[in-house]
Write a structure and sequence with these properties.
The complex is a heterodimer of chains A (about 230) and B (about 250). Chain A is of the alpha+beta class. Chain A has a single domain, classed as Glutamine Phosphoribosylpyrophosphate, subunit 1, domain 1, CATH 3.60.20.10. Chain A has 4 helices and 12 strands, in the order ββββββααββββααββ. A 5-stranded antiparallel beta sheet of chain A has the order 10-1-2-11-12. A 5-stranded antiparallel beta sheet of chain A has the order 5-6-7-8-9. In chain A, strands 3-4 form a two-stranded antiparallel ribbon. The longest helix of chain A has 22 residues. Chain B is of the alpha+beta class. Chain B has one domain: Aminohydrolase, N-terminal nucleophile (Ntn) domain (Glutamine Phosphoribosylpyrophosphate, subunit 1, domain 1). Chain B is about 30% helix and about 30% strand. In chain B, the strands form 2 sheets. In chain B, strands 1, 4, 5, 6, 7, 8, 9 and 10 form an 8-stranded antiparallel beta sheet that branches. The longest helix of chain B has 21 residues. Chain B is globular and about 85 Å long. Chain B starts with about 40 loop residues before the first strand and ends in a 14-residue tail after the last strand. The relative contact order of chain B is 0.18. The chains are: A alpha+beta (about 230), B alpha+beta (about 250). The interface between A and B is medium-sized, with 26 and 23 residues. Chain A: This is Proteasome subunit beta type-1.
Chain lengths: ~230, ~250
Amino acid sequence: MSLVVKPNFPDYQTAPVQRGFNPYADNGGSVVAIAGDDFVIIGADTRLSAGFSIYTREQNKLFPLSSTTVLGCSGCWCDTLTLTRILKSRMQMYQQEHNKTMSTTACAQMLSTMLYYKRFFPYYISNVLVGLDNDGKGVVYSYDPIGHCEKRTHRAGGSAGALLQPLLDNQIGKKNMLNVKEEPVSQQRALSIIKDVFISAAERDIYTGDSILINIITKDGIKEETFQLRKD
Amino acid sequence: MFSAPPFWQNGPAPGSFYDFPNMQPQVQPNDFRQHTQSPVTTSTSLVAVTYDKGIIIAGDLLASYGSLARYRNCPRIVKVNNNIILGSSGDYADFQYVQNFIEQKVISDECLDDGITLKPKSLYCWLTRILYNRRSKMDPLWNNFIVAGIQDGEPFLGTVDKQGTAYSDKIICTGYGAHIATPMLRDALDNKPQLTQAEARAQVERCMEVLYYRDARSFPKYQLGIIDADQGVSIEGPLQVAQNWSVAHSIKGY
């Protein structure tokens, strides 16, 4: 084996270089949602990043679609901007055509259809849609980038999703525990779990941090709350 | 490599697809276009920071051909109208293309003569759509744009990149500046959240100096765009980076 290190001076290369273009970017971010009997809470961190750079520390990733529905997005930010803009206009079109606001369940179905419409050039977003259903019960819908939709009571999505989902399954879903009784989660407990879970995510995931924005949706409307995370 | 025999005569092998008999061979399209060129004439960092009543943005006047400092008087901080400054880094030709587009928009606005002019957030949103549309065609405009403006008396600073990724913040730097100037400016804003115009200017000038020392594609001649709620738009320059190489001889180890 030769010990001589081959010098590499890319600026002095004479061969043409093909600069690749990647239409997608991973801008990170995490979304966590927990549904209860008469409420639903969704939280998203406010860090927007790419690679080792933090673009901004205060980026809202929660998009209210109606007074009972909120969408949380993380992943490719340019796709998020586009998708939420189209969603907003679709909500307005529905309102003006039918003279009523779209229900959360209808929103959930529409989002799935809109994502699948771009099946072969997908929106690279991890979506979590939350809201109150027609009976006023909290619901969480989670999606994959091409429109697979699943209804659940708790969901962690985005860059720290894989880190947080098992923790939620344990704490909210009471999975892998002996002698526990199934009882609906209280709003106070859900809120504190979301905060705890984000603190943990910020410790291990560089794409999650700075602060979180929380939306608490009840029959009285949407309450906003912020919570500071570590900023390094 | 191991390959299993087909399941039946002329049938598919395990793990492969069935070839339908009598199918016409697939014809390759001959009208395809290859997109995604690489940038040619490029400009480097932009530095922008918000102060209490406006925004300061700086960028040098160099347009490079790779490592060659080719054109040395290329302004890329331009006044759009009385409440917007536009800055660009990346491909200079793409910037000029977009600039012409915007100039035509501003003229059309003027011709309507209704006193309504383009607002910073509108231009920012419009740029987002233009760039996202081009990235979706896999034929991007290879730029990082910075929109600085005053809307409803408040400073607005936003950026869009070649993918259409857009955000607004109090500090925005592009290119090499994102790694070198952003931390310096964030530090300055942590110490004093509301800078005055003079303080902001001093910070930006310091960033341009450090960038000139550290960024090999930078240039000592630069422009400074200032947009102020009271004083309006001014583009200053060409200015010169205050160079001091007296400590250079002591830097060793590279």
